[in-house]
Design goal:
Helix 23 packs parallel to helix 26 and helix 32 runs antiparallel to helix 46. By secondary structure, the protein is an alpha+beta fold. The longest helix has 42 residues. The protein has an eight-stranded mixed beta sheet, with helices on both faces.
């Protein structure tokens, strides 16, 4: 039997390993080192470039392990040469009497397993004590190894290396504050938190981007402050200690939690206590403990005593609470046992028990208790947490979660359910917490969130005055009633909403969710990017909403608590059928109000409708409907209008069309009568002029006309008919105007409708009163009335409004199309164990609840945002993101509502439903954009406010002015008033003319056209933009973009693709030695194992050139970081044979088509490269390959010739990476790789400059690369080596020079600069558009859209100005004409003419805006054609480069005039040769074809050197 002093032997060491490239390296190291003697476990991380080894310190040393890894070809270093002790755990196995195995066989079986340190057998051979390392193996796995054994009692222990619970060593924790420099975005903070958080002894870390600091809570006996600082620096940041580390005090919340442990007693628990007399508890005071390892030493030593039930040692209180059997041991022996614990320096005293006993909860020993009989003995306080787990696929996931979690300190039991997708964990709250448990599950790669049913105390112990503190049996979980559970949950969990600003993409959302879930007291958090809102469920006893907001602010985002949190309540409108009387209503209301989760309910019998408010966390709409159905009533959702009908203006179009038709029906006869009267009047005038009739004769002739015939004295046929035709128009045609005018006046405002109502009412009432007066006086001559005015006014106005709404409907087509994407129904499925489909039902999309499993068939739309849980498919998201290619979706990916599933069936778990979906938020964004006001519009609105009162005043002035003028000088009116005849009195003529002028003023004045000028143009502009993949957020950015004078481009991902590509391949050997295809096949195969971006680029290029998806076989692959790779390549013959076969076939075709003369041999040459091998005789040859830089070649004994070196330097000068390739010891190729410039970048820059804009390049890259990129795209002003945080300062600097700046970025690290710029343009970011920061979002990744957005802005603003001109011309010219100012030149308007002009002004403005719909994006082809002549690359002397944040830049070397002339002449010669290519060349889409860089002559000819 081997006996090991296990605490001394198991040690852990971290070894840094450089040179690993892929998972096969990881496996090789793990297998090789894992086989060595004395190795318990090894875990190699490719990401962190390290290996964590747990080993037996008697058999291995850190230096031996380092050497073993070094011998395998990797660079191994020991960052910290002091190994950490690994504390083992112990379990007791009960061996049944009828066991098939002997105790010796059981020992041998167990000791063969990695992770088991020691096995001891009891004297009766019935109990085995197994000591094991919990991070490698757990108790459950041990029991499974030996059939028939039974786990007696498991006392999980606290491992110092993995002490994640903050309470177990709260007292020995130290807080450290470091200043961290060099962080630029939230991904930096995530990197530091992720890297440091994984280190042993780190309990908590919080990094703040704004304050550029990190706060770390750690355990000093496990890790030092210097080590933390070193690890941060290893991640690439500069760290300095701000304050000396200080020990943590227990917070009020922690103290509260400790006090709550011994809360109100449970009589039940006392009654159930069966062995009161067997157990006694004593509290010792212990002086001399320094750290957590003292605590653990005492606990491990004392709990090993056979008579001790449990022991808890507190470092802070300098005490130990020991439960023991007084029949077997007394307190004095225990005191001496504690004093004897190594290092034998503890002073132990026995204070008065009564004083202390109440303060110490009875806890089981975190180490082992060696009483196998006590199977049911449990801790006095146990809590249960239910954790929702997403991402489990089979039972092995379940077992691995149970295995890992069960070995965590303080965990009593774990049960994971695959079907319910959750885990129920019973734990000791003083040793671990729900958040720790959740994060440990998440670290295994599953998504874990805390369920509402959480932290339920299972058993509570109370010190009673009569009975000494004793251990009690745990109350079984099953005894807790569901009602109690619900009450508990309602008491402990609250919900708040936080408005979050500054989020730009999905990684921000993940960052907030990940960090907040780690906080104590936060149960769950859901962040919606587009809504800029976070819903947090928290425990108010532990954390406050203001603290939550502060935590989000610490992450670098803006956060404010939203007061009106009612948004979280669900509102349900239902139609309920089958109610007969008030008792039905009462029955439904009372039942619903009793239902848990229903907050408010109101049922109306008359309308058969129910209005219900509910808490979506507790109950869902389907549950509410079911409750009502169970009462015997039929119920259904009130159908919501999803057709975007509020945007197509159909109702208004119908209304105005009806109004127009009614007015027109009555207006045509009125116009007929009017025309007849005008003709008759002119005949009378002629007759009077020619026949010199007397007044009496005139009157007689006048009254003899049919229409002037008097039905009653003073009432002619004409006036009677006009009155009859006018009344219905006034009543029905003008109904809408009267209502609107009444509402406007009620709110003390005056609008267009007020003017129209004034004009028509005055005309109608004036005419009616005149008619009554004439009838009363029994006048012989019929009075002149204005009954013809209202019908004609209403006809023109309703026609204008009708056309205007038709046009407005057209302006919002883009938005209506977005809204129509929303699915109307969803298929909800119920899943059984192992994701077996149990049932499915079709429900309205409004009834989908968060967490529902929704099935989406091929061709179906996604009804809600969600996460895929099963299935693989391609999804078309083009309607939302503009991305033409379908996107692959597999379990764990997110899907967007409104996108279309293409080929596979998917099961998704709903995460955002209803108004929270991405689509709803995009719609909201576009709606807000179209309703937001441009600054120019605010001016128009202000103008319209004063407009109506002014026009009424002008109208009144006109009336009185003409009455005065008429009475003073009647001849003016007599001369210019049409239809004047002597049969009418002078006074009547004057008043009639004055009225006509004033009514015409009211008719012609139109504030409508002013009001429509901007919004219609903005609406059409944003709609056209959206159709072209340009989302403009409202009128302000649309108007601001045309004022922009400087456009600043980010480099990586904006001007360039952001991924390296092969630019050029030069062959350094003759084609007959190593043919082109053969070299590409060898190089491509060699790099296929590399994960380096340059290697990926080479492989991709070779596959493309060889037109093959598969390459040869690569073995013995080794990589040396910073140098290159070496490997062996085989099996490329079949690939070359296929390629040559294709070439030969093509050549035969070509020969058949065209008679090739001298060139025949050359064109068929590639087919002659390989000897006439046949597939049957292909023999595999092995090639030794080296690919890397000069240093790598020199190291391997290969000489790099001067001309090759010069070629490499030239590439490097141009911002490229030059790589050499050698096959079988011969240098055979030079490959130039660069992050390529987007093909449209040069044209976009040229076009922007042509538009009169200054273009600036801003990048964090070095000046050499920046200069090269700038020369390729034609930018002359460059800011290089600018940190993202400094980009804001640069933009501000440009603004301080009085320039309006547009910033174009890819929206992630550029977001602060995008927000600072006058117009922020986020490019190519799809759904993760920089919603907060940017003003304009280009959905497609195309730089020409930057040109288009500025061009569209200019066109829109131009259109707005034209609209204003239209509107003002009508008013400024029309009003004076109507008022009769131009009477002397014979220009007089009738009221109907004024209303026609007014309608025309509104319609013309809207039609003018609609012309924007014809807007075409500037086409690249057309612009390229225009630009092909003057477009040229810049020489270095023309480019000004400034480094970092300072203004004083390096500039460019000033060349003399002669130098410049010689450069240009050489460059011109170069451009003559630029299209020549040699036979062996690889023709690439070379962006530097027309380069004017110095010394470029012959540079791009890929000839053999």
């Amino acid at each position: 039997m081997r006996r090991l002093d296990s605490t001394m032997e198991a040690k852990s060491i971290v070894i840094s390993v450089e040179g690993m490239t892929c998972n096969s390296c990881v496996q090789t190291i793990e297998q090789h080192v894992g086989k060595m003697n004395g190795i318990h476990n090894i875990k190699v991380s490719l990401e962190d470039k390290n290996a964590v080894v747990i080993y037996d310190s008697k058999l291995q040393t850190p230096a031996m392990l380092q050497e073993a890894i070094y011998d395998m070809g990797f660079d191994a270093t020991l960052p910290n040469s002091n190994p950490q002790p690994v504390l083992p755990d112990t379990i007791f196995l009960t061996i049944p009497t009828q066991s098939a195995l002997t105790s010796k066989q059981i020992c041998n079986t167990l000791l063969q397993k990695k992770g088991i340190v020691d096995v001891k057998m009891s004297s009766n051979q019935r109990t085995a004590v197994v000591t094991f390392i919990p991070s490698i193996i757990n108790g459950k796995q041990i029991t499974q190894m030996v059939p028939g054994v039974d786990l007696s009692i498991s006392a999980p222990e606290v491992t110092p290396g993995t002490c994640e619970d903050s309470s177990c060593s709260q007292a020995s924790s130290v807080a450290l504050r470091l200043k961290v420099e060099g962080m630029t975005c939230h991904s930096c903070t995530s990197t530091i938190e992720g890297k440091i958080g994984k280190l042993q002894g780190i309990q908590r870390i919080k990094v703040s981007l704004d304050n550029q600091e990190a706060v770390v809570v750690y355990q000093p006996h496990l890790i030092t402050a210097e080590e933390i600082k070193r690890q941060i620096e290893a991640a690439g940041f500069t760290a300095t200690l701000k304050k000396q580390p200080r020990p943590l005090k227990l917070s009020a919340v922690d103290l509260e939690r400790l006090r709550n442990v011994q809360t109100k007693g449970s009589k039940m628990a006392l009654k159930e206590n069966s062995n009161v007399n067997d157990t006694k508890t004593v509290v010792f005071r212990i002086d001399g403990m320094h750290c957590n390892s003292c605590v653990l030493n005492i606990q491990s030593a004392i709990s090993a005593l056979p008579s001790v039930r449990s022991v808890v040692v507190s470092l802070e209180k300098k005490s130990a609470v020991v439960s023991y059997n007084p029949n077997l041991i007394n307190s004095d022996v225990l005191r001496k046992a504690i004093e004897a614990v190594s290092p034998e320096t503890f002073k132990v005293s026995l204070p008065d028990e009564c004083e202390n006993v109440a303060f110490f909860p009875m806890l089981v020993s975190p180490l082992r208790s060696s009483r196998p009989a006590l199977k049911d003995a449990s801790q006095p306080l146990t809590q249960v947490v239910v954790i929702n787990i997403e991402g489990m696929t089979c039972n092995s996931c379940v077992q691995s979660i149970e295995g890992i979690v069960s070995q965590k300190a303080g965990v009593k039991s774990v049960h994971v359910s695959l079907s319910n997708r959750n885990g129920t964990i019973e734990y000791d709250p003083l040793q671990t917490g729900p958040e720790d448990l959740r994060s440990s599950i998440e670290e295994m790669g599953f998504d874990a969130s805390l369920s509402a049913r959480t932290e339920l105390p299972v058993a509570i112990a109370q010190p009673s005055p009569e009975v000494q503190l004793e251990s009690h049996k745990a109350e079984p979980l099953s005894k807790v009633s569901p009602a109690h559970l619900a009450r508990q949950e309602a008491k402990t969990i609250s919900k708040c909403y936080v408005q979050v600003t500054g989020m730009t993409c999905a990684s921000c959302v993940a960052n907030i969710e990940r960090n907040l879930r780690r906080e104590d007291g936060i149960h769950s958090i859901l962040v919606a990017l587009m809504a800029g809102k976070a819903e947090v469920r928290y425990n108010p006893a532990v954390i406050h909403p203001s603290t939550i907001a502060e935590l989000i602010r610490e992450l670098g985002f803006g956060a404010t608590i939203m007061e009106n949190c009612g948004e979280g309540d669900g509102i349900l409108e239902l139609v309920v059928r089958g109610m007969t009387c008030a008792s039905c209503v009462h029955k439904i209301e009372s039942t619903l109000m009793k239902t848990n989760g229903v907050l408010y309910c109101s049922v109306a019998l008359a309308t058969n409708k129910a209005h219900i408010k509910y808490d979506p966390e507790v109950i869902g709409p389907r549950d509410v409907i079911q409750v009502i159905k169970d009462l015997g009533f039929n119920t259904s959702l009130v159908k919501k209008d999803r057709s975007a009908s509020h945007l197509d203006h159909k109702q208004e179009i119908r209304q105005w069309k009806r109004s127009f038709v009614v007015s027109l029906v009555f207006c045509i006869p009125v116009m007929g009568l009017m025309i007849y009267m005008m003709v008759m009047d002119s005949q009378l005038a002629d007759a009077r002029a020619h026949h010199n009739m007397t007044s009496e004769e005139m009157e007689a002739l006048h009254s003899s006309m049919v229409l002037e015939y008097q039905l009653l004295p003073g009432l002619s046929v004409m006036n009677f008919l006009s009155f009859l035709l006018c009344v219905p128009v006034q009543m029905f045609g003008g109904w809408h105007f009267y209502i609107q005018a009444y509402r406007a006046l009620k709110h003390k405002t005056a609008n267009m409708d007020v003017l129209i109502v004034l004009a028509t009412s005055i005309a109608f009432l004036y005419s009616f009163v005149i008619l009554l007066v004439a009838m009363a006086e029994k006048a012989k001559v019929n009075p002149v009335t204005f009954f013809d005015t209202p019908p004609m006014l209403f006809v023109f106005i309703s026609l204008g409004r009708w056309l205007e709404h038709v046009a407005k409907g057209k302006t919002s087509e883009a938005l209506a199309r977005l809204i129509s994407l929303q699915a109307t129904e969803a298929t909800i499925v119920t899943l059984g164990p192992d994701n077996v489909l149990l049932s499915e039902e079709q429900v309205d999309v409004e009834l989908v609840q968060r967490g529902d499993i929704v099935k989406v068939i091929p061709g179906g739309k996604f009804p809600v945002d969600g996460r895929v849980i099963e299935g693989h498919s391609m999804v078309d998201e083009s309607l939302i993101t503009g991305e033409a290619m379908p996107v692959t979706k597999k379990p764990g990916n997110t899907v967007i509502a409104g996108s279309i599933n293409q080929n596979g069936s998917l099961l998704i778990s709903a995460t955002h439903v209803g108004a929270d979906t991405t689509l709803s938020q995009i719609v909201k964004l576009v709606e807000e954009a179209q309703t937001s006001k441009a600054p120019i519009q605010q001016f128009a609105d202000k103008l319209s406010g004063y407009f109506v009162p002014c026009i009424v005043a002008v109208s009144v002035v006109t009336l009185f002015a003409w009455i005065i003028i008429g009475f003073v000088d009647f001849e003016i009116i007599e001369k210019y008033f049409l239809g004047y005849n002597k049969s009418i009195s002078e006074a009547e003529v004057i008043i009639r003319f004055a009225f006509q002028a004033s009514i015409t003023v009211l008719c012609i004045a139109c504030p409508c056209s002013l009001g429509l000028a901007t919004p219609t143009a903005v609406m059409v502009g944003t709609g056209v933009g959206a159709q072209n993949g340009i989302l403009i957020k409202g009128g302000e950015p649309l108007e601001m973009a045309h004022k922009v004078k400087v456009v600043v481009f980010d480099k990586t991902g904006t001007i360039t693709h952001g991924t390296p590509e092969v630019m050029q391949v030069k062959f350094l050997v003759e084609g007959n030695q190593l043919p082109r295809n053969k070299m590409l096949a060898i190089v491509g195969t060699a790099e296929s194992n590399s994960e380096h971006p340059l290697g990926v680029a080479i492989t991709k290029y070779c596959k493309k050139e060889l037109d093959s998806e598969t390459l040869g076989t690569c073995t013995d692959f080794q990589v040396v970081p910073g140098c290159g790779i070496s490997c062996k390549v085989t099996n490329i013959e079949a690939l070359l044979y296929r390629k040559n076969k294709m070439v030969e076939e093509n050549n035969i075709k070509n020969v058949t088509l065209v008679k090739i003369e001298e060139d025949t041999n050359e064109s068929v040459q590639p087919a002659l490269i390989i000897d006439a091998e046949l597939p049957t005789t292909l023999t595999s040859q092995k090639y030794s390959v080296l690919i890397g830089n000069r240093e790598w070649m020199n190291r391997n004994g290969l000489l790099v010739k001067n001309e090759v070196d010069r070629a490499m330097m030239e590439h490097e000068r141009r911002g490229r990476t030059a790589v050499l390739a050698a096959v079988d010891g011969v240098l055979c190729g030079l490959i130039a790789i660069a992050d390529t410039v987007k093909p449209e970048a040069e044209l976009a820059v040229y076009t922007l400059k042509n538009m009169g804009l200054e273009v600036v390049l801003m990048t964090g890259d070095n000046s050499k690369t920046a200069r090269s990129i700038a020369s390729q795209v034609g930018i002359t002003k460059v800011f290089a080596e600018v940190l993202p945080s400094h980009k804001v300062a640069k933009v501000k600097q440009l603004q301080d020079e009085g320039k309006r700046v547009a910033m174009v970025g890819d929206g992630i690290n550029d977001s602060p600069a995008l927000a600072m710029a006058n117009v922020g343009i986020a490019i190519g970011t799809g759904t993760d558009v920089a919603i907060e920061a940017a003003d304009v979002v280009l959905i497609k990744d195309d730089l020409m859209d930057v040109v288009a957005s500025i061009d569209l802005s200019r066109k829109t603003v131009k259109r707005i100005r034209i609209n204003f001109v239209f509107a003002l011309i009508y008013n400024l010219v029309g009003v004076p004409i109507a008022a009769g100012v131009f009477l002397p030149i014979g220009l007089v308007l009738q009221p109907w003419m004024g209303s026609a002009a007014m309608a025309a002004s509104s319609v013309s403005v809207v039609l003018s805006s609609l012309l924007l719909k014809m807007y075409q994006k500037p086409s690249s082809e057309k612009l390229r054609f225009q630009a092909c002549d003057p477009m040229r690359h810049k020489s270095p002397s023309e480019i000004s480069v400034r480094i970092g944040i300072d203004e004083t830049g390096t500039g460019s070397p000033k060349l003399s005039l002669m130098d410049r002339i010689s450069n240009y002449s050489r460059a011109s010669i170069n451009s003559l040769f630029s299209d020549k290519r040699s036979v062996n060349s690889i023709v690439l889409p070379e962006p530097d074809k027309h380069s004017l860089l110095v010394g470029d002559f012959g540079e791009d000819d890929d000839t053999a050197l």
